Model the fold of this input.
Amino acid sequence: MVNYKFEYAWSSGDLPGEPKFHYPVPQSISKPIVTGLKSLIPNIDFLELFSLQQAHALSGRFIAKSKSSTWLLRVTERLGYSELEKKILDYALSQGISLSPILYSEIIKVDGKYYRVDVRPFIHGDHFDGSTKKIYLLAKELSKLHKGLADFPDRNRIQIISRQRYQALEETRKLLGEAITNNCLEIFGSTEAWVRKNMNWLQLLVTMFDPRMDLRPSAQCLHGEVHPGNVLFQEGYPILIDFEESVHTFAPPDWDLAFLVQRFCMNRKTGELDRNLFKAVTDGYGTSLPPLSMTMRQAAWFSVAVALQSIRNGLIVPNSELDKFVLFEEFARSIEQE
Done:
């Protein structure tokens, strides 16, 4: 089994910190990345890498500075579908969506492991600060994205990839149910104690979680993970970033909207819905929002199912991250949509 931590751009998960890259990257990490970039980017000059946090591994977010340019780099062991992700980004860009494109992408091999390196323009911006105007503009941009991606030419390929993922999550749901019934929770390794502590909540997941979003009416291509860490604001206007989830998300637009309300409009300590922010989302999106409570609950169960699947594959997911989704689901039960 592999034994590496779940990859986060921010140490706090989806709550971003200050978007400043202060730390010089050690040569042992930067050298293979720079070598790969020099073969990828035409006429590149001297490069120096900086990271959000002190870098101890190749996987992470970096900026690469040359004499004339600055790029944002994402380096990951999750190879995914780089060509398809770039294609969906380029198509959305052609529809007038404000986003951060992939300029270049390649796979490098270091010490027997393969890493994906994505190169994007570096955006000078800030993250969400609770402004109703910013959430209004973000909802407006999301509406435009949903309309633009409804006819994405490779939607059938996205649907197939998504179906495979959802079927795997259905198997995880069944496995969890059998493990609880037979009291065989050791299959979750170091997370066994957390599973035992949250048995009642996980029984809800086993009973009510339905991952087959691709079968739901109005399913289409989406962003897939609209949270504060995946949106930058430049002079108050939103720029959508990190479309990694888009290549295996085929679901109704409610899925993105549920993420938007859950992650931007709810108080994470009390579970209260900020009605002013919620109204701004409705006004910006341009149509009345459907009831989102159950979709928000599904999103929380989905996230825990993905985490448990990853844990079974040897990744380490912090208990605090799992606890966050338990709270999200509990909060969503009490929300009365307007």
About this structure: Confidence is low (pLDDT under 50) at residues 1-10. The radius of gyration is 20 Å. Residues 155-182 form the longest helix (28 residues). Strands lie at 23-24, 48-51, 60-65, 70-76, 104-110, 113-121, 220-221, 231-234, 237-240, 250-251.
